[in-house]
Amino acid sequence: MRLAVLGLPDWAARAAVMGADVRYCGPDPKPMLRRAAKVLPGLYDRTPPAGDLTMCGTPDLAVDGADLILTAPTSGISATVPVVHIGGGPEGATVAHSGTPAWLVPEVVLTGPGAARIAPLLVGIGVAAVDALTPLPTDTMLDGPEREAAIVGSLRALREANVGPGRNLAQTEALWPWPDPDWSQPVETADRVVPLDWLDYNGHMTEARYLHAFGNATDRLMHMLGCTPDYIAAGHSFFTAETHIRHIGEANAGDRIRIHSQALMVDGAKMRFFHMMRVADRIVATSEHFMLHVSLKTRRSVPPLPPLDGGMARFGAAELTWPDGAGRAVGQPR
């Protein structure tokens, strides 16, 4: 989506981070863009698609070819495409009232004649139109990164509960396509950004969140192989029997982490595999897992059923070289 933003650096930052082609005219957006790029993607369990921000010298250059225009209240812009005045506007205008900071809070209250037409367009940058904004941490004792971390934690908790703006996060993420896997090499099972609320007292990603991230990668791998929600609902799934995580480097807030996974052994109900977590080209952690396919009725291992049996066979057929660290014991010298 091509988005024109006039005089609103916070909205320009949000839209660019969330994948829009932004044409912007206004005050310097770079400080806000840097902050949004570090914090906003951490709301999601996947990295948002890449966007772009182009500076324009005049409003006319910014709005040329736009699908939607977001503008400050005092702007007198008129156009044939939808226009949203943020925070207030002239009589008869479509107005959006947002939470603070606007680049982080994924809700607006839309009023005016164009609201129904504009609401679906805002979904593309992760913003839902609601009747009333959801209360989020606004304690005056919190400011800057502390307040942002509190908002991120609150929104992610709402996502787990699938309510309010948390539901919007999941719905936005569902719009992003997954890449087709190449089973001849380790497959990508996670691509996400470390959230602010995943840090510990050492200032880096806390130990428990490595298991969280690897667990999500395992869930994605299961789905790719054919162990889908429908398959599980029919009475079969996987149980984890053993896990071994190695911490090799550090991941920090805002780091993009990618996980690739490969089979070590697939034999009937048994599956052993290896996750590799990278920040850029650095491996920061690995995780080795042994899982059993089970009947949820008997709670015992049983052979996999179609289509999972075919997916597991394909996963194991690559016969890739074991990666460094596979099969290691705890405390074994490097």
Summarize the structure in short.
It is built from 9 helices and 13 strands. The chain is of the alpha/beta class and 334 residues long.
Descriptive overview:
By secondary structure, this protein is α/β, with parallel strands linked by helices. The protein has 2 domains: 2-129, Rossmann fold; 187-317, Hotdog Thioesterase (Thiol Ester Dehydrase, Chain A, Roll), CATH 3.10.129. It is built from 9 helices and 13 strands. Strands 3-2-1-4-5-6-7-8 form an 8-stranded mixed beta sheet. The protein has a 5-stranded antiparallel beta sheet with strand order 9-11-12-13-10. β6 (95-98) and β7 (107-111) form a beta hairpin. The N and C termini lie far apart (49 Å). The model has no long low-confidence stretch (mean pLDDT 94).
Q: Determine the CATH topology of the largest domain.
A: Thiol Ester Dehydrase, Chain A
- Average pLDDT across residues? 94
| Total of helices | 9
User: Shape, please?
Assistant: elongated
Level-2 CATH architecture of the largest domain: Roll
Number of strands: 13
As for the number of domains, it is: 2
Rg from C-alpha positions?
23 Å
Query: What is the CA-CA span between the terminal residues?
Result: 49 Å
Spatial strand order of the main sheet:
3-2-1-4-5-6-7-8
- Low-confidence runs: none
Computed structural class:
alpha/beta
Main beta-sheet annotation: 8 strands, mixed
Strand content: 25-35%
CATH-level-4 superfamily name of the largest domain: Hotdog Thioesterase
Q: What is the element string, with H for helices and E for strands? A: EHEHEHEEEEHEHHEHHEEEEH
